[in-house]
Design brief:
Number of domains: 2
Number of helices: 15
Number of strands: 25
CATH superfamily of the largest domain: Aminohydrolase, N-terminal nucleophile (Ntn) domain
CATH architecture of the largest domain: 4-Layer Sandwich
Largest sheet: 7 strands, antiparallel
Shape: elongated
Length: 442
């Protein structure tokens, strides 16, 4: 879970570069960094903290040049910069290597030295720049991809320009686009929109595609055999609601899912007075449910503007503390009503059990019916950067009634897997549904 961004501009790029990574802050907020290609070489600044709290005006003035690359991350400082046989390079990476230990051992046997932390980005950087095996960066990327088992997107700032690469198994998203003033790549389209690029000016990088950004703009310089396998959870939760990922509008997808969930409830003969969202990622689903059910949409919960995104916090204590502060009930909306509360997903169910359901009850609701815009999350993601043991999934091993009883709602329903795939509006064999089925593409 992280965000990468790279840009080539006709002017000094630093302001647009920082805008780009700031727009991806929801993908990681513990670390951020930016590198630009100056006349004297690469200049890099990396921090622990958020983008808008980190870069000083003095540092911005040193980050000169028209080429830049940046990153936000939940666990590591990026981009990483190093000397190589191809000259100075800086690399931003998002994803997961599944055969990391094997690759590490192979690199050590071939005489490479590695840092103590040995991040995925470092392993990938070493594989790309093995000069005796590859004659240029494109060949290095291809050779690296043939050795790495995993899902990832990465960007490289080199002496001759920018390279962007999406792994052959296309789970991790990557977008590229430009106009007469800028050319850029990003984990999400929202950052390109913030730089005034319109939808017809950017596109998804294909799985296995190598893109080069230089003085002539954007060009494809390599294409490996690829497989479409977009993370089904990306548009459902991770992405900003104003993003478009692999042709999927996040806003429209969530609204379709909410409408389908409402239609499934109608078949069950369910009735209520109002529908309210858990802010913010539940809003799109709630709008769709409102249209599909004809129930009045209301703001029954207020999200404190000063609480950050809690799921990406590194410790359980921080997540619980943040969730406890995040939502407040609006009594006049829920009092004496049968309330449907719409959320995007349930993992451990702690927030619903300990905070939201008691809060809405305290606000005077007659009944509380929880509706979830994604299917039952029964399996830990194989590719997540978060620790695999981060709490037990509520839906794993529990019946629907046991889950309902645990969170304390009067009823609980999830959208069906078939309904969710319908909302994505892409063939099911082009989406990773591993969180719900346990079947992963690699």
């Amino acid at each position: 879970m992280s965000g990468i961004f790279g840009i080539k501009s006709k002017r000094e790029c630093i302001d647009d570069l920082l805008t780009g990574i700031f727009s991806l802050q929801h993908r990681g907020e513990d670390f951020c960094g930016a590198v630009t290609k100056t006349k004297k070489g690469l200049v890099s600044y990396r921090y622990e903290g958020k983008v808008d709290e980190s870069f000083t005006e003095k540092e911005k003035k040193r980050l000169t040049g028209s080429y830049g690359i940046g990153s936000v991350h939940s666990f590591y400082k990026q981009p990483i910069s190093f000397e190589s046989g191809f000259g100075e390079l800086s690399l931003s990476y998002s994803g997961t290597i599944l055969n990391k230990r094997s690759l590490r051992n192979q690199l050590l046997k071939r005489g490479h030295s590695l840092s103590i932390k040995q991040t995925d980005a470092e392993i990938i950087g070493k594989l790309i720049t093995e000069k005796n095996e590859a004659t240029n960066i494109v060949e290095g990327l291809k050779r690296m991809a043939n050795q790495v088992k995993g899902v990832y997107s990465l960007g490289v700032l080199a002496e001759d320009g920018l390279y962007a690469f999406r792994s052959p198994v296309g789970v991790e998203p990557l977008i590229v686009g430009g106009n007469n003033d800028i050319s850029a790549f990003s984990s999400e389209s929202c950052s390109l929109k913030e730089l005034w690029l319109r939808e017809n000016e950017y596109r998804a990088v294909e799985p296995g595609e190598i893109v080069y950004i230089g003085d002539k703009g954007i060009e494809t310089v390599g294409q490996l055999n690829g497989m479409r396998a977009l993370c089904g959870f990306e548009p459902g939760y991770w992405e900003r609601i104003d993003s478009i990922v692999d042709g999927i509008s996040v806003k429209l997808m969530r609204e379709r899912a909410g409408r389908i969930l409402a239609e499934e409830d109608k078949k069950r003969g369910f009735k209520a007075d109002i529908v309210i969202p858990v802010r913010d990622s539940g809003v799109g689903y709630c709008i769709g449910y409102h249209h599909g059910s004809n129930l009045p949409y209301d703001e029954g919960l207020f999200k404190n503007w000063y609480v950050t995104r809690t799921f990406i916090q590194r410790t359980k204590k921080a997540r619980v503390k943040g969730a406890d502060k995040k939502q407040s009930v609006i009594i006049d909306a829920v009092k004496d009503k049968v309330v449907v509360v719409l959320d995007d997903s349930i993992r451990e169910g702690i927030t619903l059990r300990n905070k939201l359901i008691p809060l809405i009850k305290w606000g005077g609701a007659k009944e509380i019916h929880a509706r979830i815009g994604s299917p039952e999350n029964k399996f830990h993601c194989r590719y997540t950067v978060f620790p695999k043991g981060r709490g037990k999934l509520l839906s794993a091993g529990k019946s629907l009634e046991e889950q309902r009883e645990y969170i304390g709602a009067d009823s609980l329903e999830f959208i069906s897997l078939e309904g969710y795939v319908e909302a994505l509006d892409v063939p099911s064999n082009e989406v990773c549904l591993g969180c719900w089925t346990g079947q992963f593409p690699v």
